[in-house]
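Lecture notes, part 5. Sequence design as translation. It can be helpful to think of inverse folding as translation between two languages: the language of shapes and the language of residues. The source text, in structure tokens, appears below.
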């Protein structure tokens, strides 16, 4: 894996390029999100074909790959923000150029299916990125999410950034942040962008997966050694992951049972994922996780000032 480098910080009034590397984009939600970014003082650019559709995808694989690499190479674009997740990022990864991505050193933001793109970028290009809000909501990112994102991208967030969840188990550990969507983290196994959890703080979130599916995904990570290799695990939002049948365990119970069996320190209820607030965190940054207090301290800014 290449040595980690940080993207260059977004300058005030800088230009954010909007990418659609996965699912088809809703034009009204895209416009609302762009308006929020412009109100925050940034310019936005996007290609004319961003609204193309190929089934459930935002155009075919070559289109989405060309769009991403175009934004990477455009000297007027200072950062890249994904319009939405859904599905499709893993289909374009073999078409991307990691050397050009590393050389451009642009902050990349997204979550959900974009987990695959963030893991690829860290593993193949050696470049940190941001797990954070996109433009898939009707009104765009909420005010607190946008404020946290702007601080992260501009390198003006306080140090350390403290995220508070709920105590789980274990003590205090440090490691580099990795993870994202539980489904996409598990799907990375056996690929060239496989998640590297050795000594890491693994952050996980998910939406719409029933408890037995969460169990299956966690058992896959456990069987592959990814959970035992991690220094600790932080759980974000797990939305619509419960059964209506009272005889079934909840999604939270399934996750906690697995983590107790593994024995690594863990916390739950961290503010990221498919819920509000979805606060940005830098993939690759050093962090301290405290299983007793339920806190995550992010120790690196995730960007470097120019």
């Amino acid at each position: 894996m290449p040595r980690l480098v940080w993207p260059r910080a977004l300058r005030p009034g800088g230009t954010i390029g909007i990418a659609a590397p996965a699912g088809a984009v809703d034009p009204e939600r895209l416009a609302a999100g762009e308006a929020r970014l412009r109100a925050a003082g940034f310019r936005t650019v996007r290609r004319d074909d961003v609204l193309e559709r190929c089934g459930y995808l935002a155009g075919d694989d070559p289109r989405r790959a060309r769009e991403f690499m175009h934004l990477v190479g455009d000297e007027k674009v200072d950062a890249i923000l994904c319009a939405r997740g859904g599905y499709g990022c893993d289909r374009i990864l073999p078409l991307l150029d990691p050397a050009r991505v590393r050389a451009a050193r642009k902050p990349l933001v997204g979550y959900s299916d974009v987990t695959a793109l963030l893991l690829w970028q860290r593993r193949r290009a050696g470049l940190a990125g941001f797990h954070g809000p996109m433009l898939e909501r009707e009104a765009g990112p909420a005010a607190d999410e946008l404020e946290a994102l702007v601080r992260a991208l501009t390198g003006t967030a306080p140090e350390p950034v403290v995220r508070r969840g709920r105590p789980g188990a274990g003590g205090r550990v440090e490691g580099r942040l990795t993870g994202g969507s539980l489904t996409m983290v598990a799907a990375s196994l056996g690929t060239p962008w496989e998640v590297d959890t050795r000594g890491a703080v693994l952050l996980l979130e998910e939406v719409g997966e029933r408890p037995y599916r969460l169990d299956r995904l966690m058992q896959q990570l456990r069987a592959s050694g990814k959970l035992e290799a991690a220094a600790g695990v932080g759980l974000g939002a797990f939305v619509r992951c419960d059964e209506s049948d009272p005889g079934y365990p909840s999604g939270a119970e399934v996750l906690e049972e697995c983590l107790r069996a593994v024995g690594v320190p863990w916390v739950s209820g961290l503010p990221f994922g498919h819920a509000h607030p979805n606060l940005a965190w830098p993939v690759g940054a050093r962090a301290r996780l405290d299983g007793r207090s339920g806190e995550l301290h992010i120790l690196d800014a995730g960007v470097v000032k120019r």
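The translated text above is only one of many valid answers, since several sequences can fold into similar shapes. The CA atoms of residues 112 and 204 lie 10 Å apart.
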